[in-house]
């Protein structure tokens, strides 16, 4: 009662008023009475709970001790090995297949199927629509200037109008017989990179020759001096390999300046020449292959894809083609916008012109490789054809000896009857010989300037 009176005096003020709720003191009094009445039962329940927890911990410790004893026992070890051998026999076949799969390319998973291949069959028509939407004036229906005017083209005279953008594709470069768009790819590791779409119309190249330039890896090493290593490392076991279609995995190492590692690619390429549809479709994309692991001395370009459609004007073996090439790659280096634009403007048209010349010289390359003796050129063969043949004798990326020989050929022509240069000198006038020398010198300078799109990085950081 003394405790209750003290609490009551504490809750009342100096004027005798109660400062708390009336029911609070009642609940406190009842709780105290209940604890004094049931204290023994509460203590016993807590004791039983603690005993149960302690018993479980002791029992678990004994079980672990017994388990470790059995594991290290000799009989238990033998039983364990016996059970493991039985399990290995049951799963041996699956394990063998899984280990073989590590060293083989999964064609079922990564094959370029027909649906993907023919999804680009209408690319030429799509490019024509893109051309109408971006570089043709809506009012006078004349061409608009992209970056610089070209000969034999009537341009729009409407003021204040220029090329437009369609589906994020913006006109970028216009040169003779070619038009190039670009589109920024934001989902890249390096950032600020572009995919390019090229449309070309060549009247002096056949569709079959242009196709062989794209798919003949040996000839590519002959005319493309940036290809240090280029080879087929795998072929689709279920694919048809003939003159009209093929599916391969290709390894390609490209030469970069000395301050940078060479870039290499591993990509699957499938192409088909469909005479019924009158088109050629080539699709490539980067893959991983066990026969071409990453090398410490090169940088692997994993983000790479391209597709090309070639359409002959009349027939596959007659001159005249239209082609569309769309491609993207991430070389793994951040390049300023102004520098990348300058490299694209100077490098893309130069590369396409080399590809065009290589297609024109492909028949001479085939004639030379099929016969051991030197092939006498036809009247249509020019000095650049001889340059391609001479440079194909070495598959290295940069061959200084071959370059020196090409430079000295016009000054010291071979007197042999089978020499291509001597035949041209005898059948040409002095003015024609001089023009040939000038043309050869210009082409050598162009070949050396072909490295401009790579050497600019050396100039930038030197």
TrEMBL record:
Biased composition annotated in UniProt, kind: Low complexity: 422-434
Keyword entries, A-Z: Acetylation, Cytoplasm, Lipid transport, Lipid-binding, Phosphoprotein, Transport
Gene3D superfamilies: 3.30.530.20
Domain of life: Eukaryota
Region (Disordered): 408-442
InterPro entries: START-like_dom_sf, START_lipid-bd_dom, START_lipid_transfer, START_STARD7
Domain START residue range list: 181-364
Gene Ontology process terms (BP): lipid transport
Entry's localization field: Cytoplasm
Gene Ontology CC annotations of this record: cytosol
A single GO molecular function term of this UniProt record: lipid binding
UniProt subunit comment: Interacts with ACOT13/THEM2.
PANTHER family: PHOSPHATIDYLCHOLINE TRANSFER PROTEIN, STAR-RELATED LIPID TRANSFER PROTEIN 7, MITOCHONDRIAL
The protein's name: Phosphatidylcholine transfer protein
Source organism (scientific name): Fopius arisanus
Name of the gene: LOC105265494
